[in-house]
Amino acid sequence: MYRNDDSPKKREPVVYIQGGRKSFRNKYVETVALDNINIEINSKDFISITGPSGCGKSTLLHIIGLIDSFDSGQYSIAGVKVNGLSQSQKSYIRNKHVGFVFQAFNLIERLSVFDNIALPLLHRGLSNADILEKVQHSLDVVGLTDRAKFYPVQLSGGQQQRVAIARATVTSPDLLLLDEPTGNLDSKNGDIVMSQLNYLNRNGTTIVMVTHDSRYDSFFNRKIELFDGGIIGESFRKEM
Questions:
Q1: DSSP code for 221
Q2: Phi, psi of 72 (to 5 degrees)
Q3: Which of 12, 72, 177, 186 fits a 20 to 30 Å CA distance from 216?
């Protein structure tokens, strides 16, 4: 059950955005993608971002994940102010604090499932023993332990999405961002993916998910609705 007047219990903020604005320009016209965005995302939130196509959902997710940036406004993630940071500094923060799951999976076809998941750990210089332990744990969480030596082409769409989630969470990020993770899946695989996300959230992962699918509303403790680049509604699930 959602109610607009139920405020969540205060927790440690992971993301803070104040007055965020983003536009895209060409030689002739400026298109405002996001305007006056104010969001605070707290630790252990499970948030859905909804709204019609073209309203700015994916743009907002990319900015939160430091793939893109606001033109103006304040943005902090994990206590770090993003404004004025270089691309290399943003990349460092993204690799340390953020996991990102794209709708298209973005797995590397020439790498096995194990190696796809291990990739973020290699950039951190972990030992082979630590990598093995973390990847095996991530495979266990998404129920694909028996697919470690498979390649993406040998997996179903649902299995590929679960590998993408394992890769995004193997570093234990503060924040997991997902862009329509069930959009290309049938209902059975969508349910499996959402159950695994729910497990991650219950175990402390903060999740923000762009979705059109209202079937999974019960998983979220907050919903943010966008329209024409602005936030037109926010609701909280009443804690029973």
A1: S
A2: -155, 165
A3: 12
More confident site: 103 or 166: 166
HEC sequence for 104-128:
CCCCCCCCCHHHHHHHHHHCCCCCH
Q: Tell me the two tokens of residue 116.
A: 């796809």
CB 179 within 8 A of CB 210: yes
Half-sphere exposure for 230 (CA within 13 Å, toward CB): 3
**Which token pair is 238?**
């009443």
Q: Could you tell me the two tokens for 122?
A: 């290699």
Place of tokens 């770090």: 80
- At which residue do the structure tokens 């630590």 appear? 130
Q: Report residue 5 as tokens.
A: 């007047």
Residue type, 179: D
Q: What is the mean pLDDT of residues 224-229?
A: 96
Token pair listed for 175: 């924040």
Nearest to 17 by CA among 105, 95, 77, 84: 77
Torsion of CA 139, 112, 123, 136, to 10 degrees: 20
CA pair distance 156, 166, nearest whole angstrom: 15
Which pLDDT tens digit goes with each residue over 17-49? 999 999 998 888 999 999 999 999 999 999 999
pTM of this prediction? 0.89
